[in-house]
Design goal:
Helices cover 43% and strands 15% of the residues. By secondary structure, the protein is an alpha/beta fold. The strands form four sheets. The protein has a four-stranded mixed beta sheet with strand order 5-3-4-6. A four-stranded mixed beta sheet has the order 9-8-7-10, with helices on both faces. Strands 1-2 form a two-stranded antiparallel sheet.
Length: 365
Amino acid sequence: MTTLTITNNRTTTTDRPADDDCWQAVIGRDDSAVGRFFYAVRSTGVYCRPNCGARRPLRENVSFYRSGAEAERAGYRACKRCRPNQPLLAQRHQQIISAACRAIEAGDKIPDLARLAETAQMSRYHFHRLFKTITGVTPKAYATAVRRRELAAGLLTENSVTDALYGSGFNSSGSFYASSNRLLGMTPTHFRDQGQGETIRFAVGECSLGSLLVAATDTGVCAIFLGDDPEALTQDLENRFCNATLVGADRNFEQLMAQVVSYINVPTASVNLPLDIRGTAFQQQVWQALQEIPSGTTVDYSDLASRIGSPKACRAVAQACGANPVAVVIPCHRVVRRDGGLGGYRWGIERKRQLLARENQESPE
């Protein structure tokens, strides 16, 4: 609602609510009114946000302003309780965590949690919880992801593995080699060669959901793809492991293939396959949580985000589900929209519908 307001003998047009509406917002400490106007109190000489928790003033002592700067030009000072001249709490938190992320990225070594919390002027517990809420991962997991990125870049650009070792923040070769496989998903030498020399066995066949590709390293299954075109599935595997050696399946591998096909046909059965899944720390966390969803049940993206302790990371959770390389066994098909709709599915909505119907022992529509 646009109103005409007289302030300091000057007529201005504002887009704030009418004075009566403003006063009702102040009485109710209405959070939704924050940012739409400020109120000033003549008896105290301060101005506040509409939801300020200070003692309510008398109506005759209150005037309303479109901005804090306008109130200050009228001679009022900022309230020390609601701090209307500073960013909102959520914005301040975003700024604090952004600064912490920059410190983690810029440091030669991973900063200590206590030091990060001290810089943010918070307790370690509060800082840790806030960091995870905003970024979706813990400070340690974020630092690990940064170190992995730096290690990967160093192995591809430095003259030697030793140079990459120290350039990515490791202070000894022992700690480096103890962590490198976990960070990279393969040995530093293999990564330096961009996967050259790693062997991945695979097979393509048909199942009740269409074409199926299963691939595995010596560690475990690294890919289960579903689709309509076997060649497209093979190309997808080549793109994902562009410098690995892909080897057609032997008879032993065919047994693994048969196990996957059997599980797709009867997804309520138990499955115990060794997995070799590679992703960010956050993706790994989501994929682990997916495996804990019982057959025949579904959760929404918000529920899944809460289960991993990141209730505000719904979008990141959805992206991690979409990046899942192991269909059905890591059951991202059990995640639906809050309204009950199926939502997206990397392998096709109809396949998702069929899988859920089978788990509920119903016929798909």
